[in-house]
């Protein structure tokens, strides 16, 4: 029995393209993949606010479109990459969805809780991922070992550990692992289980911290609780400690995220 694949028929492609400001060609080429990937990460912020507001994270395509496209919110990997993969498949790209084990800023082995995708092109396979947040990809990268590949704000590469691929990044620090994955295809039911852990488990980073990120061609903004970082030219230009009102203002003005009237964020990372 073959598991159910991700839905694509219900995607409002025109609305998605308008959301990311893309007006270019629609063909399954590397140039289009690069352009769509960059347009997405420059337009839709990474964020976990609904987790902290006690709202369930729905990752079916209809819910993702309603939130990220119609409501102009952001989301985390399952939301972001579900939307991106649906658009790629509608355009005609051959895409395999994968599941990774995050290593970034972890000292212990964690569960597989990060969605990414493999895109097949005439030039070879590429890794695409619009949902990792801060140090994540701004452009797709070739699935090749040992090659440094430039991004908008840093350099990334892939290495092999047996059958496992490891994405590593060199930004303001020496090479550091971001996540590890295999090329085994995963399906919506796999992501539902991983999403449940990510949005509800007490050990999940996302239930105890305010997290947001948004890239542009010039810089990368990252927010973790009260700390705002601006990464530009290989270094942090600014690192602010935010008060309650400043935090809400930064979410609105820098990330385009406005909380519902009367809503307040509360979590261990913010209150500690």
UniProtKB/TrEMBL annotation:
The keyword Manganese does not apply. Keywords: Transferase. GO terms for molecular function: acetyltransferase activity. It comes from the Bacteria. Gene3D superfamilies: Arylamine N-acetyltransferase, Cysteine proteinases. The keyword Iron does not apply. Belongs to the arylamine N-acetyltransferase family. PANTHER family: ARYLAMINE N-ACETYLTRANSFERASE 4-RELATED, N-HYDROXYARYLAMINE O-ACETYLTRANSFERASE. This is N-hydroxyarylamine O-acetyltransferase.
